[in-house]
């Protein structure tokens, strides 16, 4: 059984939870209390020196970085529907994973962290930068989804989980792009079992 060190507010962690739940991979969730500084404890830093969630523990192995975890799980369990073996199809998934990690995720972090978590102490320049970046990225995603049922092709892949996790985080700041193709795709992804489980954890955290 896997152990996933996570926090429900982390969109990086939620994308991994979504895959674990969707594919019925046995796992135990261990919440890392970031407010209490558990991510800076010696025990946690031994798992991930960067002090960030998620971290997947598989026996004696500990793996950080959400997209690396997604790829590992797919490779280990032969989840070819989620991470295709065909070189071109896999490259498409990797392209959108990289696009998300290098472009969409930083904009998401700038907007949500400063607006929702830091509030009046937030860096307004970073918020403005995030919105400016997002304004350039949203049409790219809308164009893609207007021609393809999912981000990297006709069926959902781990790239969809990565993109969805960012957009669901943007909902917290009322900043999710609401164009037609993105909205239809977002609703469809949200109805998936694994995504619903992951998002339910955040909803529970918001209510407590």
From TrEMBL:
Pfam (any one): GST_N_2
InterPro entries linked to this entry: Glutathione-S-Trfase_C-like, Glutathione-S-Trfase_C_sf, Glutathione_S-Trfase, Glutathione_S-Trfase_N, GST_C, GST_Theta, Thioredoxin-like_sf
SUPFAM superfamilies linked: GST C-terminal domain-like, Thioredoxin-like
Cytoplasm is among the record's keywords: yes
UniProt subcellular location: Cytoplasm
Domain GST C-terminal, chain residue ranges per copy: 86-208
This protein's UniProt keywords: Cytoplasm, Transferase
Chief place where the protein resides: cytoplasm
Recorded GO CC terms: cytoplasm
Residue span, GST N-terminal domain: 1-81
Gene Ontology MF: a single term: transferase activity
Family according to the record: Belongs to the GST superfamily.
Protein name: Glutathione S-transferase family protein
């Amino acid at each position: 059984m896997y152990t996933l060190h996570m926090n429900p507010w982390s969109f990086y962690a939620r994308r991994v939870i979504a895959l674990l739940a969707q594919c019925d991979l046995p796992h135990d969730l261990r919440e890392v209390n970031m407010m209490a500084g558990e991510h800076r404890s010696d025990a946690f830093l031994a798992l991930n020196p960067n002090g960030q969630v998620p971290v997947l523990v598989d026996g004696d192995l500990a793996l950080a970085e959400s997209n690396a975890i997604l790829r590992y799980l797919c490779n280990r369990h032969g989840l070819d529907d989620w991470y295709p073996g065909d070189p071109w199809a896999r490259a498409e998934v990797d392209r959108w994973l990289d696009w998300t990690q290098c472009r969409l995720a930083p904009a998401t972090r700038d907007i949500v962290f400063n607006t929702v978590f830091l509030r009046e102490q937030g860096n307004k320049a970073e918020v403005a930068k995030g919105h400016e970046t997002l304004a350039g990225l949203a049409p790219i995603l809308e164009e893609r989804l207007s021609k393809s049922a999912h981000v990297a092709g006709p069926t959902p892949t781990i790239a969809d989980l990565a993109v969805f996790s960012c957009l669901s985080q943007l909902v917290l700041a009322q900043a999710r792009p609401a164009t037609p193709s993105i909205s239809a795709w977002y609703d469809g992804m949200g109805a998936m079992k694994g995504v619903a489980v992951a998002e339910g954890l955040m909803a529970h955290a918001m209510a407590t």
